[in-house]
């Protein structure tokens, strides 16, 4: 399985290639389990990202708070959810962002699925 | 010998833990979901299990990509919980059962499943939320737990077929444990959902319904699918159905080969909770 294959539309399979590409970003996001690290990121984002050795693409994606860019840079949603949590964003916020709709529209779509 | 008295499978969405922490069970968004557990509470009051084998996936609390096991079994006297990044209050720790854990580990390794063995293991929302759904209200946990963790983060994931066989091996291990323990198996996660990518918000009710029916009548049904086919059908997090499948195989294994057959005691299916099609099933051995 390769990342280029994209076997499922709109879905990045988190395989070895992605894991290699995203390792620094994932490691930084994993550190956000600790509230002190979240506070440190907020205090000095540049220094925090530099400490984990993010690639330029990862640093830009972090700056943009953009989940699709973060995934393209090797991010994994389980760890990215910890990053999103710093800004009080839940999975519906990031679902809306990735699908290009408002959160209210994203929630309405899910509620419609239940009817 | 220890006896497996039933299987409960349930979604473990973090929002459930948030709703519990904030006491939102009676709010319209949540009431139907939480009320669905009333028959489970009645059943647990009646059958009084001693131990819960909890089949779940870690989401980046205990394991990271630096060292990521495919199958891991806890063998600790106690399992702590911790902040996963969202500032939720910690759930009180769970008592373990090291003797049963080691019996299961010894048995499944002898059966060809080379698991990672953990004497320290923090458990995340995939354990905490189902445990709080089954035994709400605080107080000491009435069961000891044996956590069984399966990788759903880093591909390649174990196939559905492999998970089914792993569950059978765990079931045979429990059934050969020389004690009178009453064991409930809990499978957490699912059902269809996807958090990442342009397909975020994906739900597949038809597939979920088929899968839930198969849990009763045709337990190995999902093993016909490859991992990528399951991602396509259920979403990139819906793949957590392999945890339900494993738990179902534990229940069905009995002490011999084949499947003992099960009876559905209760089931709910509710769309949505957060981004997820949420499901719960309570199954008992048919005999």
How would you describe what is shown here?
Chain A has 115 residues and is mainly alpha-helical. Chain A has helices spanning 16-31, 35-43, 45-51, 56-64, 67-72, 77-86, 91-99, 103-113. In chain A, helix 2 packs across helix 3 (45-51). Chain B has 287 residues and is of the alpha/beta class. In chain B, helix 1 (14-21) crosses helix 5 (125-134), helix 4 (98-110) crosses helix 6 (160-175) and helix 6 packs parallel to helix 9. The longest helix of chain B has 16 residues, at 160-175. At the A-B interface, helix 1, helix 5, helix 6, helix 7 and helix 8 of A face helix 8 and strand 9 of B.
What is the strand and helix layout of this fold?
The complex is a heterodimer of chains A (115) and B (287).
Chain A (H helix, E strand, L loop, with lengths): L15 H16 L3 H9 L1 H7 L4 H9 L2 H6 L4 H10 L4 H9 L3 H11 L2
Helix pairs in contact in A: 1-6, 2-3, 7-8
Chain B lengths: L2 E8 L3 H8 L6 H8 L2 H10 L3 E6 L14 E4 L3 E2 L14 E2 L2 H13 L5 E3 L6 H10 L9 E7 L9 H16 L6 E7 L16 H13 L9 H8 L6 H13 L8 E12 L2 E10 L2
Parallel strand pairs in B: 1-8, 2-7, 2-8, 3-6
Antiparallel strand pairs in B: 1-10, 3-7, 4-5, 9-10
